[in-house]
Amino acid sequence: MNILMAAGAVLILIALLFLLATYRYSRRGRLLRASGAFACGITSALLGSIAILIMVSYLGYERLTAEQLVGVIEFSQKSPQEYTARLMVDGEIDRLLILRGDEWQLDARVITWKPPATILGLEPVYQLERLSGRYASVDRELTAPRTVYALAEERPLDLWSLARKFPRLTPGIDAFYGTATYVPMADGARYRITLSRDALLARPINDPARRAVGAWGQVAQ
After folding, report:
1. Under DSSP, is residue 51 helix (H, G, I), strand (E, B) or coil?
2. What are the boundaries of each domain within the chain?
3. Pairing mode, if any, of strands 95-100 and 82-89?
4. CA distances from residue 176 to 110, 124, 163, 179, 191 in whole angstroms, order as listed
5. Predicted confidence band at 3 (pLDDT cuts at 50, 70, 90)?
6. Each residue's pLDDT tens digit, 9-18
7. Residues 6+ apart with CB under 8 A from 200
8. How far apart are the C-alpha atoms of 144 and 13, rounded to whole Å?
């Protein structure tokens, strides 16, 4: 990021020099040179702005090292197939969200690097993307109200979205979803959420969650 910040600052400085040259050439009536300097200035300013916006977007993500703790989620049942989910992420205010259904899933945006971007020495990063509920019954899934919550703020320029939409323009950036498989909800159940290099993992950490996972596994079999 230091390299990207420096590049952005240098390009903005170059843009200012070109725009100053544009002013001087215009004063002297050398319109052709003024036009060329103006075009170079705008191009440099655009590239510098993109570099800075990418840096800001990157800093909005969390660093990902090996398998990393993301947070804890706890459920309390309000009514049949309706739960209050308390999502606890270190350094953030707890989120209280109503989920409908029998199971929950958490998604994250993950960015990893490959050549040529690896020369920058960047670490993989992630950002929680959404939390959703699901009904175990297909009929209920088709007809009952569903709940999905966005966890990531929309930005004017997001590195993950840019890499997904324009992969040929962002060589060296691998952007994908890290997704936890659907896990059962139960009253009082708590799960620890971790993220590896390619997937979210949810592990039960109390008896209600262990019982829910055990019963869920037996039903699946």
Report:
1. helix
2. 2-59, 64-220
3. antiparallel
4. 5, 12, 9, 9, 23
5. low
6. 666 677 777 7
7. 70, 106, 107, 108, 178, 179, 180, 193, 194
8. 57
